[in-house]
Amino acid sequence: MCGIVGLFLKDKSLEPRLGELLSEMLVSLSDRGPDSAGIAIYGAGDKKKSKITIQSTNPESDFPGLGKDLEKGIGARVDVIVKSTHAVIEVPTEKLDAARDAILAARPAVRIMGAGQVIEIFKEVGLPADVVKRFGLTKMAGTHGIGHTRMATESAVTTMGAHPFSTGPDQCLVHNGSLSNHNNVRRELKHDGMTFETENDTEVAAAFISNKMAHGDNLGAALEKTLTDLDGFFTFVVGTKNGFGVVRDPIACKPAVMAETDQYVAFGSEYRALANLPGIDDARVWEPEPAKVYFWEH
Amino acid sequence: MPTVDLAKSSLRELNQALHDIKKGSNETAWEVVNPKGSHAVAAGVDQPVSIDVRGSVGYYCGGMNDGGAITVHGSAGPGVGENMMSGTIVVKGDASQYAGATGQGGLLVIEGNASSRCGISMKGIDIVVHGNIGHMSAFMAQSGSLVVLGDAGDALGDSIYEAKLFVRGKVKSLGADCVKKKMHPKHIERLRKLLDAAGVQGVKPEEFTRYGSARTLYNFNIDNADAY
């Protein structure tokens, strides 16, 4: 099982409603995976600033004073916005790598969920409705986003095992399925310098795509390579800073339905997730073909 | 005509009401509104009533249907008409994977496209698809007919038994033991009846190619013993 959703807006007037629409899509698929849930939102950004989303199991002790500690560490202004177990840390873009190191030096127990100019990632154990409420996701604006509700198969039910997985700047991936050659692929990616936070198969898929893009592929080309190099069952929905992609394995057991209007492109594991989107009755609705890459970019 | 609004009533209430219809009841025309992708809409109907579903449905719509005439005015999710016994199901839009799987009887009409595994393990159902079908359709199909006005995907009829497959367009590839066969007058006649029943107009049975089992997998071949 597992349920995945994605929404890529073409019409700017819908941007203030991105979080609300995406949250409703995800909550509608709760019975596909009650273990944990997560959403990545691509919001407004400016080139000079970057964001790092971190997670802590002890937010009461880890987050107070963190901004000041980081400002001392990197010698630049830092803004920390705490949302439950997560915090979004805004730093000058040229200080991004320094800030990463400073965070882990100041608070060794926190985990970095993702980083980039526009991405924010929130994921926790629990039902989608609870996760959405905990992080106030319905109020978030943005250009595109992806979400996942998990029924764990390949690894433990933990915050770090929840999706989306982010393994590159402003990149993230959600997955329905299971990969059978992830250990091999992980080993190859480690040789090429990629680092991993978990033993999860989906993190390998995310890192595989990030790795290909780091070597110069665009999103479409990187997704094509998943079809030859990853073995197993998958429907992937992928977000990049300005793009949104979908690919299914050739067997295509995992369900998928898409809708497109002048206002958006939407993905859901089931039509239920799309049923309340604006203008859905007049949308082009179709099932993505097996082994075919779909992607859109702003 | 009873109308059930799934925005107000639960799926259980709808299906219970349909299951409670007594033989000979005068309430023979039902309407379901706001399905919004719900699962198992009108599953287990066992009386000859008509049910119009206004919108798209999720998994297993009309499953086990035994005599109902169900029309989906939208698209259907995976497993529409799974294990249908008798009656008809018409999907005005597209159908997702394994439409009509294991169906034992009745007629399933998809007016759009059907995706992968259409008619998998069919056991007597007739399926007519106005558009195309996806890969692995009619896998291990045992009896009944699958009629496709468009094209078929990879591995059509893999390990097929005695079901009859009629495809008007191209077949991307045939599965193991599935072969092209000659159209005899009895097949033309059978196909004509199916096209009529499915409301297909302006298409002649002679435009189709028949596929079926080469029957080489029916008995164990001792020469293959090393493979096991």
Strand order of the largest sheet of chain A: 7-2-8-1-14-13-15
Helix amount of chain B, in percent? Answer: under 10%
Give me the CATH architecture of chain B, please: 3 Solenoid
The number of helical segments of chain A is: 8
Distance between the termini of chain B: 59 Å
What form of chain A results from the Cα inertia axes? globular
| Mean pLDDT over the full residue set of chain A | 96
Strand line-up across the major sheet of chain B: 1-2-3-4-5-6-7-8-9-11-10
Order of helices and strands of chain B: EHEEEEEEEEEHE
Give the strand content of chain A: 25-35%
How are the elements arranged and paired?
The complex is a heterodimer of chains A (298) and B (228).
Chain A: E1 3-9, H1 18-27, E2 36-42, E3 49-55, H2 59-62, H3 66-74, E4 79-83, E5 86-92, H4 96-106, E6 111-116, E7 119-125, H5 128-134, E8 144-150, E9 165-168, E10 171-179, H6 182-191, H7 201-214, H8 219-229, E11 232-239, E12 243-248, E13 257-260, E14 264-268, E15 284-286, E16 294-297
Antiparallel strand pairs in A: 1-8, 1-14, 2-7, 2-8, 3-5, 3-6, 4-5, 9-10, 10-11, 11-12, 12-16, 13-14, 13-15
Helix pairs in contact in A: 3-4, 6-7, 7-8
Chain B: E1 3-5, H1 11-19, E2 29-33, E3 50-54, E4 66-72, E5 86-91, E6 107-110, E7 123-129, E8 143-148, E9 164-167, E10 178-181, H2 185-197, E11 209-213
Parallel strand pairs in B: 1-2, 2-3, 3-4, 4-5, 5-6, 6-7, 7-8, 8-9
Antiparallel strand pairs in B: 9-11, 10-11
